[in-house]
Amino acid sequence: MQSKTMSADSPSNACPARLPARSMDVDDAGAMVHKWEFGDPAKAKTLRFRMDKCIGCDLCRIVCPTSCIELGPVPEIASGKLEGVPPILVNHETCAYCGLCAAVCPTGAFEFSTAPADFITIEELPRFHFKPFVEHVQRHMKRSFDHPASSEVKAPPSLKKPSEGKVLLRGDLLGKCDPMGCKGCLQICPTGCFWVPKKAEDIAALGKITVDDDLCIHCGACRNACPHRIIEVTRTRVEHELPGGGKMPWHAAWEKRIGLLLEHAGQVKLRPKLQVAETAQEQPPAAAPAVRLIEIPREVKEQLLRDYEAVKESLAQVNTRYWIEFTKIEPLRKAISKILPSKKGTRRSGTGQPE
């Protein structure tokens, strides 16, 4: 009798019903839906990400146990230079679907669910106090740049402040700050802590921009939004509770990830100074090599313009940007081939002529 060896690297030898299936899609509301189906009978974990709620605070990236979250161009998004771009990117192929990102998110940008619904519930994850605190402040504040939200919103005693820490503005870099031109920290702060003094005496005492600590949750969104790294955020405590008194084996791993919120808070990477030798002599610029220009035929230029207009709308979609960011060649190729079916399997030479 011959024996068969089952290998994780040999899908043909495994039971198809037990093979996990990962997928990413965009729903009708524009949210990115990451799904992991597995088991027999089938179970599923779903992570829904709404980029319109995301502030790029970085809390989810820090607690993520598989480092599947990357920070996007937050300064450009916060200042309004980029629209329709997610502040973070999630690699669903390395995501463990643990739900920690949904638990720590202060704005509800992540939604975690399972099928069946009672397989894993949000109550079985660590409980943070960021989201209820932010919801209360945003429900009552009217965002303004000339006064902090704390002047009109007070947190009730029953609502626990989610963190302790400090936000500092670096005096050595403050000269680069253009608060009303950039507005990054002013617009991104979820609790309206940043404001711009108007009176001369306030400017003399507080500077051209200041931050009020009363409602600050030390999320770090302001630090990530600042293009000059003027803002430093220090977290000394993050309020949280573990379910069941923290007695399960995996709770220690959760505490380790949560502890990183304190370790990462004050770290600001500065660009190294350019070292120039004092004895260096100025060298004449080297002659530029001759460039041979190739004239592209007019009909080829017109065809390229038509192709661009055809794919321009697709490039603005979230799933297309996701495929490009994570080099998902096959779904990108299929999408482009549907838009430009006549170009499928056709390559152009350096002269612009089809090969």
Could you walk me through the main structural features you see in this protein, from its secondary elements to its overall organization?
This protein has 355 residues and is an alpha+beta fold. Among the domains are: 16-128, 2-Layer Sandwich (Alpha-Beta Plaits); 141-239, 2-Layer Sandwich (Alpha-Beta Plaits). Helices cover 27% and strands 15% of the residues. The protein has twelve helices and twelve strands. The protein has helices at 59-63, 74-78, 100-104, 130-140, 179-182, 184-188, 200-206, 221-225, 251-263, 298-315, 318-325, 329-339, and strands spanning 21-26, 32-38, 43-49, 69-71, 88-90, 110-115, 127-128, 163-169, 194-195, 210-211, 231-238, 240-241. The protein has a four-stranded antiparallel β-sheet with strand order 1-2-3-6. Strand 2 and strand 3 (43-49) form a beta hairpin. The longest helix has 18 residues, at 298-315. The chain is globular, with a radius of gyration of 26 Å. Mean pLDDT is 82; it is low at 1-17, 266-281 and 344-355.
Any descriptors?
355 residues; alpha+beta; Alpha-Beta Plaits; four-stranded antiparallel sheet; 12 helices; 12 strands; globular; disordered N terminus
